[in-house]
Amino acid sequence: MAQTGCSLSVECAHGVRVGRVQFSAPRLFMYNLQEFKQVFDPILKNFLEQRLKKFSSNSSDNFIKDFIEYSEKLTMAGGKRIRPYIAYVMYTANGGKDIQNALKLFVSLEIFHNFALIHDDIMDKQYKRHGVDTIPAFVLKRLKEEKRTGDLENASNAQGILMGDLFFSWAMELFLGNKNFPKENLNSSQNYFYKMVDELCFGQILDIDIATRKKAKKNLIEDKTRLKTSRYTFVRPMQIGAHLANPNSNMDAFCEELGTRLGIAFQMQDDLLDIVGDPKILEKNTLRDIAEHQHTFFTDYVFEKGTKQQKEKLLKYFGKELKDNEQKEVIEIFEKSRAIEEGKLEILKNLNEAKKIIENSLLPEECKEICLILIESMRIRQN
């Protein structure tokens, strides 16, 4: 297991190719996802501590300081760090040598992700994230403790929006203000960062719109998955890492193909875990998609291929907070309609396709190994 104090240097030369892209022939040292998190989290924590301390110094009010600095606890409470990790993998695969500065730059991906989560929790009315209070929930509790006046729920949501905006600003500053890489490399990778921002926002627009529809078209559900998960979580971070190392990288098609498969599998797993996952492991309540009237592969499968009784029963519960006995009924609908079984097969199909893409590529063997380990961890994923 790699330790946070170990060397981050990577030896690279010419020799191995992926498509038209040259890669390093000597053996690389690469972290798996768990090792990467151990190395990356102290860098992320250090950045947050410095920025939040400086930002909160604008006021001497302890209440304000508390909820501003609470955002660090929320960020560090959990998260897999997949986006900076996949960027790191592709940076290394493309011959990137300055790992230390690359990780500092990839902090922007995690900060941007937390901006999205903070706003997402407000849109979805979520009160817990990684087992701890969301920012609006934390602020609301404190406001009630102090017996404040006015619309406290609206005030707490507004504070969450503002903290999310702050994270967005920091993410942009981190990426656009970087001076540690050649301008050509930064400009090339920044183009994919901008695309990622646009696509996530568009995917979120679809996510909100779809939840208002009695029936969502399958292509809209697929578009949402492509933009909110495939592109945002895998494709764009991979391209950002590749182009930071090599501004002339020709790996875009490879990243698109691999990232799309991984993204579909990842989103479907999220949707599946929302149905059958253990709330204690997930650190959040399940069947939220049903309560929030969110269309997924699984709901779409029931509405398209379920029996008349299954469709009517799911429709009755769709968009409602469920009691314990109602939750059991809904899970039973997904089971008996074969939605869960078919969903699992679809997840496995996409992971197997991703595995083939990696095995058939000309990535350095060490990169192949690390990517295959990631796929295996996704296959057995429980949260």
Q: What's the short version?
A:
The chain is mainly alpha-helical and 383 residues long. 70% of the residues lie in helices and 3% in strands. Strand 1 and strand 2 (21-23) form a beta hairpin.
Question: Can you describe what's shown?
Answer:
The protein is an all-alpha fold and 383 residues long. It folds into two domains: 1-6 and 21-184, Farnesyl Diphosphate Synthase (Orthogonal Bundle), CATH 1.10.600; 212-383, Orthogonal Bundle (Farnesyl Diphosphate Synthase), CATH 1.10.600.10. 70% of the residues lie in helices and 3% in strands. It is built from 16 helices and four strands. The strands form two sheets. The chain has a two-stranded antiparallel ribbon with strand order 1-2. It has a two-stranded antiparallel sheet with strand order 3-4. A hairpin with a 2-residue loop joins strand 3 (128-129) and strand 4. The radius of gyration is 22 Å and the shape is globular.
Order of helices and strands: EEHHHHEEHHHHHHHHHHHH
- How many separate structural domains? 2
Estimate the global geometry from the Cα principal axes: globular
How much is the average pLDDT?
Answer: 91
Assembly state here? single chain
Structural class: mainly alpha
CATH topology-level name of the largest domain: Farnesyl Diphosphate Synthase
Give the biggest sheet.
Answer: 2 strands, antiparallel
What key attributes describe this structure?
383 residues; mainly alpha; Farnesyl Diphosphate Synthase; 2 domains; two-stranded antiparallel sheet; 70% helix; 3% strand; globular; disordered N terminus
